[in-house]
Design a protein that fits this description.
The structure holds two protein chains of two kinds. Helix content of chain A is 32%, strand content 21%. Chain A is α/β, with parallel strands linked by helices. In chain A, the strands form three sheets. In chain A, strands 1, 2, 5, 6, 7, 8, 9, 10, 11, 13, 15 and 16 form a twelve-stranded mixed beta sheet that branches. In chain A, β1 and β2 form a beta hairpin. Chain B is an alpha/beta fold. Chain B folds into two domains: 250 residues, Thiolase/Chalcone synthase (Peroxisomal Thiolase, Chain A, domain 1, 3-Layer(aba) Sandwich), CATH 3.40.47.10; 151 residues, Thiolase/Chalcone synthase (Peroxisomal Thiolase, Chain A, domain 1). Chain B is built from 14 helices and 16 strands. In chain B, the strands form three sheets. In chain B, strands 1, 2, 5, 6, 7, 9, 10, 11, 12, 15 and 16 form an eleven-stranded mixed beta sheet that branches. A three-stranded mixed beta sheet of chain B has the order 3-4-8, with no helix packed on it. In chain B, a hairpin with a 4-residue loop joins β15 and β16. Classes of the chains: A alpha/beta, B alpha/beta.
């Protein structure tokens, strides 16, 4: 079976546009969480967000794409181009059916959707954009990447709330194993508009704090929900042999994956996260002791933090593995969060530095070795990335250092 | 050895009837379920026709609390799931839940629920800063349609891999294709897979009006969906769901299950051309068909029936006619091709699974459903589209295809279970 490796990374994150800016900010513990700027959030019970800074769409997209794209699709197209450039790929040089696109989504182009709903209900059906039919739907980013780069191979879109970003990358690995040469994968996500904000508030999981340093505190006794954000990462997944033939720089291997679903809440049985971790390790042929770092889902909801800590300690033992959540600097990016964590884990392997979980004073009751404060030097050869989605989704990916 | 995957249970909610039996009766009688929209006053819209499901969720077994919480598309998915599981005869409570997975396809998610709640919190579009205090507690489940997979997983107690597949109008094929892959790679032994959509709402009408994708044949709603006919002028929006129990073929045989069909091959490609446009040559769909046949170990000549996408837009019907010729050669002219969208409309992400159900039932009954309303074929659509009446036809191998916004082209091959 062929091996799937990551050869390119493109990042659009609240604490940095571009992989270099993001990674420098993350190692420097610079947060991108600030008061919402895209609309007046002062009247809502949550007022902080992670917004991608300094993105000028006109600098990155041809003008004809502007009227037909939501903000998040523009960020996606930026990240996809950046990832291809980073991988040294010119899609025109490759066979069209050898290249595919598999992304995750959560709410589609929701800001675009709000504007058109407003046009429909305040003015009438004739005022709805001709682009509404595809600008908001969940498949938009895969379609637009495919068109922009001439990729005609097997493609897809997965939605499993925040876990979907890992499911998409795993599907990319499946397509590589089935013979594709290259899959553009990952996700850039977010719905920072009033309508998206109100829908996210309904989850009951948003932090009501106005202090960016106190608002999102996973595994802390003061955990009070999360700050939502926008952004994520696009990854170039390639067949290892193809990558090697073209002497590509390899960040790491997608070595293991598993997805599980929690038992119905009324059963009182253990959630499925531990099982996802064990299955992903088995899939990678890795023992728990080989894992050098865990990138946690880090919900910052006490019950969910407890579940996640219990799953990690059940597999690795109390404080048995370094755990981190750099998403404390970006907020939760929905389906974009886990691909960004994959990017961080790969960069962490490259540089031998585990990025910190900022602002958190770990609750000792969780018995986690949480990396806080400064980045921690460590030789990282195997990393585990976890993501959980509302309703019961658990996904886990094991990354292995490039040989 | 590579696992083979069988359909052993099916549940269908389609315009014209709830349940797989009603669905097949409608198709084989060649009746149409398209009508003037009754859910709201459609008169402001260019296209005022749809294929609506007469669906009573409480009669279908949902509790009032479930009905209040779940979007109509989620309700369809859960009711169709229960029918499929009962039909399969499988006792899921006796199975290891970790080996049971879920995939639900949808193109537009909880669009009805979202539009309804938007109207409330925005005072019908008057407020940009919408009112969070008037939002329903389950609004997040409408925001992110993976809630459909949650509802289905809870309905059957599944604890294996679960997700929503959302590739626009090929979601129904792609969801089942994804589930087949999970069984083959042994991530699950049983998959509850299919798709759902309930898009008949003002915002959906408005966005298809804006690009003239739907038919303006408002004075003749019953005959408005006219795939392959020279007079076709757009698709008719539909709604519905189909869910299946898929399992490892050996497993199904060991428990002596009724097997509708084997899913023998699947392929998906993108046209990388345009978000809504199609090139007339059908090139990428032909490639998807080639891949699906190759995976099934079959040749173009082996196809007995093509269940077409047949949406009834000018461009689609030519596009796929070209794709069939390109991929099947001479057999494209010999083998019957039909579009059930002529009867049940185009339910976006749901229709792919509904068409898989029709394809499996064609194998089961050796009957090919017709293309209704086809009186004068477009000269550019010169295949045998089975006009008006169902045809008794030995059907061992079916090709079913889908095409959608974003450029997605998918193809699936179903075969009679006895075939080795």
């Amino acid at each position: 079976m062929s091996t799937a490796v990551v050869t390119g990374i493109g990042v659009a994150a609240p604490n940095g546009l571009g992989t270099g800016h993001y990674w420098a900010a993350t190692l420097g513990a610079h947060s991108g969480i600030r008061p919402v700027s895209r609309f007046d959030a002062s009247g809502y019970p949550a007022r902080l967000a992670g917004e991608v800074p300094g993105f000028v769409a006109q600098e990155h997209l041809p003008s004809r794409l502007l009227p037909q794209t939501d903000h998040l699709t523009r960020l996606t197209l930026y990240a996809a181009r950046a990832a291809l450039d980073d991988a040294g790929i010119n899609p025109g040089d490759l066979a069209e059916y050898e290249m595919g696109v598999v992304t995750a989504s959560s709410a589609g182009g929701f800001e675009f959707g709000q504007r058109e709903l407003q046009n429909l209900w305040s003015k009438g059906s004739r005022y709805v954009s001709a682009y509404q039919s595809f600008a908001w739907f969940y498949a938009v980013n895969t379609g637009q990447i495919s068109i922009r780069h001439g990729m005609r191979g097997p493609s897809g879109v997965l939605v499993s709330d925040q876990a979907g970003g890992l499911d998409a990358v795993a599907q990319a690995r499946r397509q590589i194993r089935r013979g594709s040469g290259l899959i553009v994968s990952g996700a850039v996500d977010g719905s920072i508009c009033p309508w998206g904000w109100v829908a996210q508030l309904a989850s009951g999981r948003l932090s009501d704090s106005d202090d960016p340093r106190r608002a999102y505190l996973p595994f802390d006794a003061d955990a009070r929900g999360h700050v939502p954000g926008e952004g994520g990462a696009i990854l170039i997944v390639e067949d290892a042999e193809v990558a090697s033939r073209r002497r590509a720089r390899v960040y790491g291997e997608l070595a293991g994956y598993a997805a599980t679903f929690d038992p119905r809440p009324d059963t009182g049985r253990e959630p499925g996260l531990r099982r996802a971790i064990e299955l992903a390790l088995a899939d990678a042929g890795a023992r728990p002791a080989e894992v050098d770092v865990v990138f946690a889902d880090a919900a910052a909801v006490p019950e969910l933090d407890r579940q996640e800590a219990a799953a990690i300690t059940a597999v690795f033992g109390p404080s048995g593995v370094p755990v981190t959540a750099p998403k404390t600097m970006t907020g939760r990016l929905y389906s974009g969060a886990a691909p960004l964590d994959l990017a961080a884990a790969l960069l962490c392997m490259r540089d031998g530095l585990i990025p910190p979980t900022t602002n958190v004073t770990p609750d000792p009751g969780y018995r986690l070795d949480l990396v806080t404060g400064e980045p921690r030097p460590a030789q990282v050869r195997t990393a585990l990335v976890l993501a959980r989605g509302e309703g019961g989704f658990n996904s886990a990916v094991v990354l292995r250092h490039a040989i | 050895m590579r696992r083979r995957v069988a359909i052993t249970g099916m549940g269908v909610i389609a315009p014209g009837g709830v349940g797989a039996k009603e669905f097949w009766t409608l198709l084989t009688e060649g009746r149409t379920a398209t009508r003037r929209i009754s859910f709201f006053d459609p008169s402001p819209f260019r296209s005022q026709v749809a294929a609506e499901v007469d669906f009573d969720p409480v009669a279908a077994g949902l509790t009032p609390a479930e009905v209040a919480r779940m979007d109509r598309a989620a309700q369809f998915a859960v009711v169709a799931t229960r029918e499929a599981v009962a039909d399969s005869g499988i006792e899921l409570s006796e199975r290891d839940p970790a080996r049971v997975g879920v995939t639900v396809g949808t193109a537009v998610g909880a669009t009805m629920g979202l539009e309804r709640e938007y109207r409330t919190v925005s005072d019908d579009g008057q407020r940009y800063l919408v009112d969070h205090e008037r939002a329903v507690p389950h609004l997040y489940q409408y925001l992110v349609p993976s809630s459909f997979a949650v509802d289905v997983a809870h309905a059957v107690g599944a604890e294996g891999p679960a997700t929503v597949v959302s590739t626009g109008c090929t979601s129904g094929l792609d969801s089942v294709g994804y589930a087949v892959e999970l069984i083959r790679e042994r991530s699950a032994d049983i998959m509850i897979a299919g798709s759902t959509d309930a898009p008949i709402s003002p915002i959906t009408l408005a966005c298809f009006d804006a690009i003239k994708a739907t038919t303006p044949r408002n004075d003749d709603a019953e005959h408005a969906s006219r795939p392959f006919d020279i007079s076709r002028d757009g698709f008719v929006l539909g709604e519905g769901a189909a869910m299946f129990v898929l399992e490892d073929l050996d497993h199904a045989r060991r428990r002596d299950a009724h097997i509708y069909a084997e899913i023998a091959g699947f392929g998906s490609r993108c046209n990388a051309f345009h978000m809504t446009g199609l090139r007339p040559d059908g090139r990428e769909m032909a490639e998807a068909i080639r891949v699906a046949l190759a995976e099934a170990g079959l040749a173009g000549d082996d196809v007995d029936y093509i269940n077409a996408h047949g949406s009834g837009t000018k461009q689609n019907d030519r596009h796929e006619t070209a794709a069939f010729k390109r991929s099947l050669g001479g057999n494209a002219y010999r083998c019957p091709v039909s579009s059930i969208k002529s009867m049940v409309g185009h339910s976006l992400g749901a229709i792919g699974s509904i068409e898989i159900a029709a394809s499996a039932l064609a194998i089961e009954h050796d009957v090919v459903p017709p293309t209704a309303n086809l009186h004068r074929p477009d000269p550019e659509c010169d295949l045998d589209y089975v006009p008006l009446t169902a045809r008794p036809w030995r059907t061992d191998t079916v090709l079913t295809v889908g095409s959608g916004f974003g450029g997605f082209q998918s193809a699936m091959v179903l075969t009679r279970p006895g075939r080795s």
